[in-house]
Amino acid sequence: MNILEKLNAIKNQEITAKENVEAYIKVIEEKNKDINAFLEVNKEEAIAKAEEIDLKIKNGEEVGALAGLVFGIKANINVEDFIISAASKTLEDYIGSYDATVVKKIKSEDGIIIGINNMDEFAAGSSTETSYYGAVNNPAAPGRIPGGSSGGSAAAVSAEMCDIAIGSDTGGSIRNPSSHCGVLGMKPSYGAVSRQGLLDLSMSLDQIGPMARDITGITLALDTIIGYDPTECTTLKWDAPNFTEIAESIKGRKKPLEGMKIATCREFREVTNDEINEIIDKSVEKLEELGAELVELSFNHIDICLPTYYLINYVEFFSATRKYDGRKYGSRIEEVCGEEVLRRIQIGSYISQKEFSGKYYQKALQARSLIRNEINKMLKDVDLIVGPTVPKLPHSLGEKLEPMEMYAYDVLTVIANLAGIPAASVKAGDVEGIPVGLQLQAKPQDDGKIVKAMAAFEYAK
């Protein structure tokens, strides 16, 4: 069963929500010690909520659009009564006093929150090795990193510990681990999903999005969490499509992508390992077989994407962490945080100073405009840009990488965040058993085109 079929089975009383929850609890109990995807699980509350949903269904009462589906939530998104630590000692005792808007929406549609997923500390990382609670093991490639910073979320989905996980994506933090763990992950258009209740890393780049094992999990989540939020200033007033209907409408069609124009980019290939490019080439051929027209474009600013992204990230992260001063809650961040978080705070502090702001931060903002304009120009006459999600395979857990080697994982994913466009990763294949992701990018608010291509790609298997 895919996730939509499971949802319908629950609503039709073919299986119960309680059975769904209990099955995931069993998997978590069997696997989490080795994988470390969940930091906290509330079995009793999840089972109680499932029983409540089952009773409603039995009595013929109306239930929500996610009735009985089980969710994991990244540890930087507020969920009432769970420890929301952002995987840092700084907030090890901080208990969420409210639900983030996305969590409220999931609960209002009878989705069940089973627990909190591990992550890189304060989302500062690409491997989920910087967590105060220990690294996450990749269930799809044991002994290797799951990617980051939403590595616990991707691992939980990949290990079949939940139906859907909700992560955050600042420079690829949903798509990178989705690629490494062989699952689907999507960063919607900037502003499509409310960030209210997210412990931000870089507020002008952050976006919340879903991860799942199949396209129906992605679409059901998007249909729930996308929408205007008057309490969050970046959200869009947007008449979003029904993503589940988009995905379902192409089932059985021989050429579901007919009329769509997709582009590859030479510069994306040049920074990517050959064995990954081979897998991506086959995936692009598959998209052509499904009816898409293929063109090749050039992107002239790939060399400035990483420095632009990280300069903005450092400054905004430094600003975001000033509230963690040990007075209102938690510990003083600089006194207890890990090496990568401290590095970003110190660099951000340095380049935020008045005498350096123009030299670094303002130039980064100018470069961001260049990148955004170039990407929008590329997307003017095509529906999608496709290519590798990550340019190299995940390294072994514990292998020491220099900061710039770690940052290199993000070179192809930061572009979407800098430009504010939607982007997703789907499993394209594997290299000696290690998953490889295909990234799809579209114009702002063209999220539906990405969903259409993801669905076509999945259903053609």
UniProtKB/TrEMBL annotation:
<keyword id="KW-0648">Protein biosynthesis</keyword>
<feature type="domain" description="Amidase">
    <location>
        <begin position="19"/>
        <end position="450"/>
    </location>
</feature>
<dbReference type="GO" id="GO:0016740">
    <property type="term" value="F:transferase activity"/>
</dbReference>
<dbReference type="InterPro" id="IPR036928">
    <property type="entry name" value="AS_sf"/>
</dbReference>
<dbReference type="GO" id="GO:0050567">
    <property type="term" value="F:glutaminyl-tRNA synthase (glutamine-hydrolyzing) activity"/>
</dbReference>
<feature type="active site" description="Acyl-ester intermediate">
    <location>
        <position position="173"/>
    </location>
</feature>
<dbReference type="InterPro" id="IPR020556">
    <property type="entry name" value="Amidase_CS"/>
</dbReference>
<comment type="similarity">
    <text>Belongs to the amidase family. GatA subfamily.</text>
</comment>
<keyword id="KW-0067">ATP-binding</keyword>
<dbReference type="Pfam" id="PF01425">
    <property type="entry name" value="Amidase"/>
</dbReference>
<dbReference type="InterPro" id="IPR004412">
    <property type="entry name" value="GatA"/>
</dbReference>
<comment type="function">
    <text>Allows the formation of correctly charged Gln-tRNA(Gln) through the transamidation of misacylated Glu-tRNA(Gln) in organisms which lack glutaminyl-tRNA synthetase. The reaction takes place in the presence of glutamine and ATP through an activated gamma-phospho-Glu-tRNA(Gln).</text>
</comment>
<dbReference type="GO" id="GO:0005524">
    <property type="term" value="F:ATP binding"/>
</dbReference>
<dbReference type="InterPro" id="IPR000120">
    <property type="entry name" value="Amidase"/>
</dbReference>
<dbReference type="GO" id="GO:0030956">
    <property type="term" value="C:glutamyl-tRNA(Gln) amidotransferase complex"/>
</dbReference>
<comment type="subunit">
    <text>Heterotrimer of A, B and C subunits.</text>
</comment>
<dbReference type="InterPro" id="IPR023631">
    <property type="entry name" value="Amidase_dom"/>
</dbReference>
<dbReference type="GO" id="GO:0006412">
    <property type="term" value="P:translation"/>
</dbReference>
<keyword id="KW-0547">Nucleotide-binding</keyword>
<protein>
    <recommendedName>
        <fullName>Glutamyl-tRNA(Gln) amidotransferase subunit A</fullName>
        <ecNumber>6.3.5.7</ecNumber>
    </recommendedName>
</protein>
<feature type="active site" description="Charge relay system">
    <location>
        <position position="149"/>
    </location>
</feature>
<keyword id="KW-0808">Transferase</keyword>
<keyword id="KW-0436">Ligase</keyword>
<feature type="active site" description="Charge relay system">
    <location>
        <position position="74"/>
    </location>
</feature>
